[in-house]
Amino acid sequence: HSDPAQSHWAASLMRWMHTLKGSARMAGAMQLGQAIHEMESLIERQMAAPDLAQDSTHERVLTLIADLIEGQDAASAMVDLLTGADRPGLQTEARHPVAMDPAAPKGVAPPAAEVTSPLVRVRADLLDRLVNEAGEVAIARARLDGELSGVHAALADLSDNVARLRSQLREIQLAADTRINTRRDLQTASPEFDPLEFDRYTRFQELTRLLAEAVDDVATVHHNAVRGLEQASRDLHLQAQVTRDLQQDLMTIRMVRFSSIAERLHRVVRQAGRDTGRQAKLEIAGERVELDRSVLERVLGPLEHVLRNAVAHGIELPQTRTEAGKPVQGALRLSVHAEGRSIAIELADDGRGLDLARIRERALERGLVTPEARLSDAELAQLIFLPGFTTADQVSAVAGRGVGLDVVRAEVAAMGGRIDVTSMAGQGTCFSMHLPASMALSQVMLVRIGDRRFAIGSGVIEQVLQPDPEVLNEAHARGSLDLEEGASLPLAYLGGLLDLSMDPEGQRHPPVLLLRSGNQRLALHVDEVSPVQDVVVKDVGAQLSRMPGIVGATVLGQGDIVLIIDPVQIDLAVRRSSDGRHPQTVLQPVRMALAPTVMVVDDSVTVRKVTQRLLQREGYTVMLARDGLDALQQLEDSLPDIVLLDIEMPRMNGFELLTRLREQTRLARIPVVMISSRTADKHREHAATLGVQAFLGKPYDESELLGLIARLTTS
């Protein structure tokens, strides 16, 4: 204030303190009441001094304010112990009540944005349980969605089969009628009567009529099933919207403003300054940003440590700052802002910056780097996150033991976030944390190695590449992948990184994820990736949570439990455990045999499934098409190594598709094997004329088919 010696400010403060003291004593908190009583006595003594008004510099009043702030910190700590509010948000009521400023003029209403409805106090554990139950509803709905998708596919196949059966039955009926007309025998009957009137229809014709009626009945049942499934799909979609809104509302209730921990962070800075003999002031920008309560709880510890570290290692002593032309009081700026579905927290100070020369010296002493190693400033800065690393010469209550920043990084990584550090000598250091906005819901990408699936948070994924197999083989031999921009990243196969003893699958374009966690980057080779999706994050328990790189777990719609991992942190842990190198099982060159891709084109669901199982059992990649048009559409996106083709199919038969293949330059070289029940010489000759490589009859011999595929795909 411009005039802190004005007596009405002291009187207003005394009224508040007197009320708080009375409440504390009434609740039995005698120690807290005594602490506030001593603060009241201190104000009375100082304000009653006769020479206070003549102190033009307000030095005595400012000293009083500093003493009161110290007393306030001690009283706040007592209140936290009494209320159990040592974690943020536990005592926060829903949707932030409005606190009227006692100094504000009467009759002035708060801003419209601050007006809230009546509040209901809800236990935090009950709220967490509601969020988990809403997540279980979402998982069950996803499972139903997957089952309905399977029913949709089955009904689509049934539609094709009914149409094919009706067409074939129509041909039988026409053939039967034609046969009757050609076998008329009217020798014993009058010529004016037709075969129907003489009951010339045989049992065969009667069965065709019965089959036609049965097909119509099946078509009716199919139509009703499709209509019911469409209605169920609409209802499920509506239920999904309601569930999503419920989850969002519950997550909104869990949100807590960052300002709820602001005072605690100020106390940390003031206490660290008193312990180290430094003067520092914390400025917080973005206090109104809201975070999930669980995120705020977990980030509080890392934030407090980074703040203490900034005061102890960053802010210089007052004399040093004066000599450097800086203000005596150091400045710490903590900014919080939302970035999409994540929260960015940056802490910058105006101190000395990181002593990179001292960091390198300590790294050499501990054997973390070799004397000939040339590390960039960014790489040297990352060494401060190693366990037990410190540049302090003496151990104090605030710093010097080398315990802290490695725990900070591990805790941030366990939350699915990352932490970076940048520094400029003499100008200061900046720590940047990127955290998920919620610990209950997360966006992940599912990856597969062999028959196992894992989830990787979308926040650490920069890009997905599909290099050529030859390029990837060479990169595995070197242990690094070269990018187009000139950078080179360490390369690892996820199966080897997790020591699962799996070899990569041979693919035409194997997926490689470019990952980033902090300043660490990694190229990760996997067998398969799926699109990014929202999942409900489950706690993995105390045992797994201590393991590096395990972020959490989730349950997929099929009921499968999948771990959410951070491969970059796993890679760092593997390197640290092997003296900076990958174990031999990971570093050895990975040779991938490219598995041929076979396209099966047949209108029979049974033939497609049986052939698919046979080929997959032999290690082939299989593409399925129900007719010629479906095959042509798929060939626009990817090319198989060989095509297994039926002749009789709806929309476009095998001969028509083969003609299209041979007319297009990019498709003409694909070998084709005809597999059909039509094995007459004219069918074989016509297929040979169109350029088929082999012709097999149904049912085919499996060993003969596999031999043909092996010969035609390797020639």
Structure description:
It is a single chain. The chain is α/β, with parallel strands linked by helices and 715 residues long. It has 22 helices and 22 strands. It has a five-stranded mixed β-sheet with strand order 2-4-5-7-6. Strands 15-8-9-17-16 form a five-stranded mixed β-sheet. The protein has a five-stranded mixed β-sheet with strand order 10-13-14-12-11, sandwiched between helices. A hairpin with a 2-residue loop joins strand 4 and strand 5. Helix 1 packs antiparallel against helix 2 and helix 4 packs antiparallel against helix 5.
Describe the protein's topology.
Elements: H1 7-26, H2 30-47, H3 59-83, H4 124-182, H5 203-254, E1 255-257, H6 262-276, E2 280-285, E3 290-292, H7 293-314, H8 318-323, E4 330-339, E5 342-349, H9 356-365, H10 377-382, H11 405-414, E6 418-424, E7 428-436, E8 441-449, E9 452-457, E10 461-465, H12 469-478, E11 480-482, E12 488-493, H13 494-497, E13 512-517, E14 520-525, E15 528-536, H14 541-545, E16 550-555, E17 561-565, H15 567-577, H16 584-587, E18 597-601, H17 605-617, E19 621-625, H18 628-635, E20 642-645, H19 654-663, H20 665-668, E21 672-676, H21 681-690, E22 694-697, H22 702-714
Parallel strand pairs: 2-4, 9-17, 12-14, 18-19, 18-20, 20-21, 21-22
Antiparallel strand pairs: 1-3, 4-5, 5-7, 6-7, 8-9, 8-15, 10-13, 11-12, 13-14, 16-17
Helix pairs in contact: 1-2, 2-3, 4-5, 6-7, 7-11
